[in-house]
Amino acid sequence: MEKPINNRAWLLVAPVFLIVAFSAILPIMTVVNYSVQDTFGNNQFFWNGLGWFQELLDPSTELGGRFFAALWRNLAFSAIILAIEVPLGILVALSMPREGWKVAATLVVMALPLLIPWNVVGTIWQVFARADIGLLGYGLNWLGIDYNYTGDTLSAWITIVVMDVWHWTSLVALLCYAGLKSIPDAYYQAARIDGASRWAIFTTIQLPKMKRVLLIAVLLRFMDSFMIYTEPFVLTGGGPGNATTFLSIDLVKLALGQFDLGKAAAMSLVYNLIVLAVCWVFYTVMTNTGSERADRGEPA
Amino acid sequence: MASITLDHLAHAYRPDPRGPQDYQLKEINHVWRQGGAYALLGPSGCGKTTLLNIISGLVTPTTGRILFDGRDVTHLPTEARNIAQVFQFPVVYDTMTVRENLAFPLKNRHVPRADIVRRVEEIASRLDLSAVLDRKAQNLTADAKQKISLGRGLVRADVAAILFDEPLTVIDPHLKWQLRSSLKELHRALDLTMIYVTHDQTEALTFADTVVVMHDGSVVQTGSPEELFLRPAHTFVGHFIGSPGMNVLPAEVRGRTAYIEGIAIALPCAYPALPAGARIELGVRPEFAQLARAGSGLPVKVRRIDDLGRTRIARIEIAGHAAAATVPEGLSIEGDAAGLKLDPAQIHIYADGALVAGEGGV
Amino acid sequence: MNQSSRASTFIMVLYLIFLLLPIYWLVNMSLKTNFEINTTVSLWPRDLTFEHYIKIFTDASWYTGYINSLTYVVLNTIISISLALPAAYAFSRYTFVGDKHLFFWLLSNRMAPPAVFALPFFNLYSAIGLFDTPWAVALAHCLFNVPLAVWILEGFMSGVPREIDETAAIDGYSFPRFFVKIFMPLIASGIGVAAFFCFMFSWVELLLARTLTATNAKPIAVTMTRTVSAAGMDWGLLAAAGVLTIIPGALVIWFVRNYIAKGFALGRV
User: Fold this and answer.
1) Which domain holds residue A39?
2) Which of A182, B78, B231, C192 fits A192 for a cystine, CB–CB 3.0-4.6 Å?
3) Together in a domain, B323 and B250
4) Predicted pLDDT at B359
5) Where on the tree of life does the source sit, at the highest rank (chain A) (predicted)?
């Protein structure tokens, strides 16, 4: 059924448009304004054209080197957590209890990490993983494993990755679980009648039906890990050295720490553009998945 | 190829059934002949889908056994039963082509490649699916998808019976008829046992040789469509089959006469063995009750006359009880007084809903 | 119980232990004295104490943090839902100029990194005099919560047949009355799900909340980051404050537990 055309619907959308525009467009304009100026302090600004952008995108400069290092670090981080959280989330969703009080209890425990303020997530892992007072840190060292996330880069990365897995796998699992719940029983019955193995049921029924929610899960996890700030900030503060300084951490250091407004603004814009581009790709893919039933003409 | 025997079968979804009210399916003994076309007919919630799922092995019955050609399969899983099932909503594997869908059950059973190819081609041509074999199953219409589900059952050479669970629910009306006749054709060509669950009497009566009518968890009658029409074994069957359904009127029977609120009706035979204290009813189908001019036959009141095209049905009242009757061609009634003539051979007497056999008939 | 469901139970139990272990450790620490924390690593408090909790509930600089946080979270949830309701209705019922682009643009804001907005928001809310008030944080969080609420509500509204709107119009309901009396009750669970997610994302966010407040509206999360590192690490107090921030979330989950799966089922979060 086609939706009727009615441009007065804009009246209903207007409040949302205004408030989001107020929160998004005005600040972005400020950022654009800063990004093309330089300052020597005292609120005196002068035109700098695309200077900051050239510096930012040139890895040989100090700013550019710093930006690309943070960008690669962030991409590596996103890739690692996606590679862990997506399969693990699917596995957990497949392992959900079928019925009864166990479902409610499991759902509540699973959702718990999602509702903890992000800095508290950092705090939890800080007290859990510290080598002197934390169960994990103390336990690993007791087992003879040299582990100290405040001093050792590898330990720090492992801790941050495990923390993110702890924090967000449930989101992937809940999305997948909802996708699985929407599969009618008849599919499973038909598969049993057709003699399908457990693996065949997974690849031919469950995975295709989860495709849409999985796309959303990957999108959300990619975006949120790409803008991760609070948890590593609390846990490691970006260290040791700059080993866990991700884009957002670097940006906040630049903007609110050093008040290097021009550089920070240029970085913000490039950062935001990357996010928008990825977002658009996902949105297009997702919209196509929705409509492909209709227009996928298969070769005869 | 098998006959299927239900032996003292009963099922309750509760783990600890106490009384008969806890049973969704009350004790059933029945034999489905090899090669028969059966319909399992009844309103929603009468237990017919439960019965179907017990036969296919998706549900294990609480008590009783189920035998395929004498072999006890009660506790065998679905995949070991050689059963195929077509569900209410089309089930196809979205990501596969039609060809892959049809080959799927054979691939899972490790049938040699060459045999798979041959079987798939054969079944596809039987089902008119050859043209779309390499299309994605997801993009086809509902009736094509139902054919694919059916095809996945038919490709298996060893299949003992095909079960249909209201398979035409989502099919367009004009295609229903077509699909049903291709089912009948397949049945004749392949000599398969088919069990077809439906709540639609037209579907049941046109598809099946034998109709099993279920009501409230039990089988109330098994018979050919003709038997169900002429000799309903239960007032429920009388109501449920035929449109409008059978007239069922409270009556008293003495000798060869029934009395409805004092109005005498001659019966073809005597009913000396009527259980005392039972609710006695007289049943006659509208097709065997003809309206006549006032003064002839039983006195009735006409409420309205519906013109159904080929026939006219009168909604009448006999001594305050609503009933329906056929209006003979050419008869016109003025006012609301009329007469009613019953075909004595088609009058049945029911005690507590069940048909009672008469004695000394003509 | 067959083999595969035993494996499932095993995986599930392992996963739940993984989730609960760090939280258990936090609770454990919050009930220990700082002396015990710093000297031994023990699986349960040897010297059980509630001193950290007592401190939080009696010291105004601590408990006002909770009040501030809850204030802007509730404000934000109310603003987001009430603005998103009519907009979601428009998206679910009508085609209008630019609707697809608008929808994408809204959603893209859900994905925008808060770090990008920290500084400009600071300037903006200072300029309009809302800096260090709950309103600043509540409005700033609208950036990602309003699009989210629109998205979730649109999904639920599309599930309501349009004939209902038409029937109500024929019965002589005015649009606002129809919307409040008939339509909103129909999507009540959707409103609940959307409110849940608005609450959640506003409650867990720290970067903007920290940037836009100084002393008067300081949220609890910030209180934790600022006071603790002052005179050495007061681990016990930090842990107790952490435990107390988990409780509102846990309560909310408990109330909506039956809707969680439904909300996720739309594939929209």
Assistant:
1) 7-47+246-291
2) B78
3) yes
4) 78
5) Bacteria
Residue B315, classed as helix, strand or coil, is strand
C23 CB within 8 Å of a chain A CB: yes
Cβ pair A192:B136 closer than 8 A: no
Please, is A93 exposed, middle or buried when counting C-beta atoms within 10 Å of its C-beta (0-12, 13-18, 19+)?
Answer: buried
**Identity at B101, one-letter amino acid code:** N
Residue B52 lies in a domain: yes
Q: What is the CATH number of the domain that holds A89?
A: 1.10.3720.10
| Residue B170, domain extent | 4-233
In angstroms, the CA B121 to CA B104 distance is 14
C28: helix, strand or coil:
helix
Would residue B238 count as lying in a domain? no
Q: Residue A117: closest CA among chain C residues belongs to which residue? A: C204
Q: Residue B279's domain is classified under what CATH number?
A: 2.40.50.140
Q: Look at residue A209 and tell me if it is in a domain.
A: yes
Residue-level pLDDT at A293 = 40
A116 CB contacts (<8 Å, ≥6 apart)?
A124, A167, C204, C245, C246, C249
d(CA C217, CA C64): 8
Are A142 and A186 found together in one domain? yes
Q: Is residue B227 part of a domain?
A: yes
**Beta strands B37-41 and B193-198, pairing class:** parallel
**Chain A touched by C111 (CB under 8 Å):** yes
- Cα–Cα distances in Å, from B23 out to A73, B20, B29, B47, B210? 64, 5, 15, 9, 25
SS3 of residue B173 by DSSP:
helix
The whole-angstrom distance between B250's CA and the closest CA on chain A is 44
B173 and B258 housed in the same domain: no
Inter-chain Cβ pairs, chain A and chain C, closer than 8 A: 289
Same domain, A274 and A197: no
Residues 6+ apart with CB under 8 A from B142: B90, B170, B171, B172
pLDDT band at residue A43 using 50, 70 and 90 as cut-offs: low
- A221 plus A117 within the same structural domain: yes
CB-CB under 8 Å, B96 with A204: yes
- C-alpha distances (whole Å) from A255 to each of A52, A93, A262, B355 are 14, 41, 9, 91
Terminal C-alpha separation, chain C:
35
The DSSP annotation for B192-234 comes to: -EEEEEES-HHHHHHH-SEEEEEETTEEEEEE-HHHHHHS-SB
Q: What is the ipTM of this complex?
A: 0.83
In angstroms, what CA-CA distances link B46 with B26, B52, B64, C22, C133? Answer: 10, 12, 19, 53, 64
Same domain, A148 and A213: yes
pLDDT 10s digits, B34-55: 888 999 998 888 888 888 888 8
A277/chain B closest Cα distance in angstroms: 29
**Count of the separate structural domains present in chain B:** 2
Please write the tens of the pLDDT for every residue from C34-63: 778 777 777 888 888 888 888 888 888 788
Please judge whether A299 and B134 are an interchain contact, meaning their C-beta atoms are less than 8 angstroms apart.
yes
Q: Between the CA of residue A200 and those of B55, B107, B109, C8, C215, what are the distances in Å?
A: 24, 11, 12, 18, 59
**Residue C130 pLDDT greater than 90, yes or no:** no
Cis peptide before A97 (omega within 30 of 0): no
The pLDDT tens digits for B240-274 are 888 888 999 998 888 888 888 888 888 888 888 78
Say whether both B272 and B346 belong to one domain: yes
Distance in Å, alpha carbon of C259 to nearest chain A alpha carbon: 10
CATH superfamily, domain at C56-265: MetI-like (1.10.3720.10)
More confident residue, B297 or A125: A125
Chains that touch B (3 or more CB pairs under 8 A): A
Q: How many domains is chain A partitioned into structurally?
A: 2
Which of B233, B266, B295 terminates a domain? The answer is B233
User: Are residues A109 and A81 both part of a single domain?
Assistant: yes
Residue B71: strand pairing partners: B68
Judged by a CB distance cut-off of 8 A, whether residue A187 touches chain C is no
